[in-house]
């Protein structure tokens, strides 16, 4: 097998031409790789696509590569000035926003009824399992790349790229959804309908014809904050988040004074299917905590600060969501809940018209913090992806004065603004949930690989048993989700698929020895928690509508086209350059240790 650190059989070139530090915008900033030095070089690279793809499918990066060589490609370092306190408030600010203040009303009214609180519990359990997986990775590999870096180390470049594209999609459409919701609550604050602030374009299709200029302006202002200073953004975020928590407490206390338990009598009008269908969409409300993991590179003490920050933020958020959902359903019958601004309208209909302004103000505060944290997180994802040259390295530049990735921040927020300008919230929320659940499932798989497989140490027999167990866990989870998605009647299929998932997890626990223990902080109850995370994420995927899967498929196909024609060749040359640098350093040091930046074979 060809290695990512060597030349390919067809002479496809290799290596990366060094760019000089500083903010510039030349061809060398976008395509410095040897494969793009000329049309003939590009032709040779394309002819080598097969061998390079086979190489990248099985080659995995080393932790030290992500922590040192890849990070150094940004020129300047990010500033390490965040603590667990910053991370907790970043987590709260990232999560509590449009999901609870908008989607709660839509799902309670149309899909699940008062049992929306159970939907939030299900989504919260899934999110918490993913938080555990993210936390171990963030502590062990504290870089800006988040799940992209974790997947590169454990599942290889190809799977990391597929996940990376969906991570970027997740952030763009998530920010767009929040920005459009910002307009809705801003309209409520001014006693207007959201349509009063949107431009109707009759020539466009129904889900894309309500143009939202206010959303674009809000995103532009957030962009300015995000590029100036991460610590400054953090301070601004936790001030807004404290105000936001105060408003949430007001909503709960004031809302419960208008509670009527009769509104909860028809608790599950849409049955169990409604609960899980709503859970899949309401997972949107928990999205954002992964942005905190991208700040590990800027954290003073990752081993202490990241577990406290991530787990503390998610615990607080889940509790608040459940209490808010109960409060809303106690205030009015689910059939009367407004789909656009549920809490504001609920107070208005219960004779507390003045309270709707406080609610709208709090919602705006919450959505602003979500946009801020999202802007910070998405830029750091893109920065690390660009460091590997899967995206143009111009996007990896860190400004030497601000210590922030200015180029990546601006590009991501421009893309977010374009989507927010055109696209309806319902389309955004469903597509967002697919991308996120898919990524979280991959991170859980990667954690199992991390614990049970170490290249050069794990025996072939144990490697093969690991592969069989992971495939079985995935297959039984997909089978359960498929039965649910196609609405199979009866309990018999689940009596087969669920015990089969349990048996696969038992086999992994009993017959495959763990090859690695976490150095600083680890997920408890491995393999049970990661396996449960895989199962519940895949199950929730089975509750999402088919049109969203079609859009997801189109996006993934577009990613693969880009990868085969651009990303594969750029990252291949980058891997060769890193290996050459490491080999030179090894010779210079005169030791016999493996080169720090080498790529190792992760074929199992």
Query: What is the CATH first-level class name?
Result: Mainly Alpha
General form: globular
Distance between the termini: 14 Å
The stretches of 5 or more residues where confidence is low (pLDDT under 50) are: 1-14, 18-22, 592-604
Which oligomeric state applies?
single chain
User: Which secondary-structure class do the elements indicate?
Assistant: mainly alpha
Helix content: 55-70%
Radius of gyration: 24 Å
In CATH terms, the superfamily is Amino acid/polyamine transporter I
Rounded average pLDDT: 80
In CATH terms, what is the architecture?
Up-down Bundle
Features of this protein?
604 residues; Amino acid/polyamine transporter I; two-stranded antiparallel ribbon; two-stranded antiparallel sheet; 22 helices; 67% helix; globular; disordered C terminus; membrane; CAT_C; Cationic amino acid transporter 1; amino-acid transport; AA/rel_permease1
Notes on the protein architecture:
The protein has 604 residues and is mainly alpha-helical. The protein has one domain (81-557): Amino acid/polyamine transporter I (Up-down Bundle), CATH 1.20.1740.10. Helices cover 67% and strands 1% of the residues. It has 22 helices and four strands. It has helices spanning 27-30, 39-47, 49-58, 63-69, 84-95, 98-112, 116-140, 147-154, 157-189, 213-228, 230-256, 271-282, 289-293, 302-331, 342-349, 355-387, 406-422, 425-452, 460-485, 492-511, 528-541, 546-589; strands at residues 59-60, 199-200, 210-211, 600-601. It has a two-stranded antiparallel sheet with strand order 1-4. Strands 2-3 form a two-stranded antiparallel ribbon. Helix 7 (116-140) packs parallel to helix 12. The longest helix has 44 residues, at 546-589. It is globular.
